[in-house]
Amino acid sequence: MAAGSSSCSSMVLDEVKTPHVLAVDDSLADRKLIERLLTKSACKVTTAENGQRALELLGLIDGQHANNNRGSKVHMIITDYCMPGMTGYELLRKIKESSNLKEIPVVIMSSENVPTRIKKCLDEGAEEFMLKPLKQSDVKRLRCHMMQLGQPCNGRLCMG
Description:
It is built from 6 helices and 7 strands. It is an alpha/beta fold. Helix 3 (about 50-60) packs parallel to helix 4 (about 90-95). The protein is globular, with a radius of gyration of 15 Å.
């Protein structure tokens, strides 16, 4: 496969119109904020309180590939960096190691601006590293990453 091409060409038009985002954060307040911002940007949102629950929702449990046909496809994962049990970085690594999930864009968020942490996440395959709290302008910027899975970003969806 050529660099920059996508293995997700089977995405249907309806899914492109309503991107599905998995938001992972151990803080209920932060999950609610992310959910509200994404919903205002016409996204479908599923939330998870930790990395393990996110892997369950994605059908990736204990490193085993499970059938992930029971729910709608996730177009982006946005996760907090600092979480108990499994950090956002560890979640990112598990996703990028999975042949079924590695094409899904992952965005890491943190309230701490630590350059080495940011570089480590970006080097491991994160699409973006954003500082918390997220703002509506941040979410609009992310829509392009969601759309790139199914087709080239055409400007109409890149509102940020």
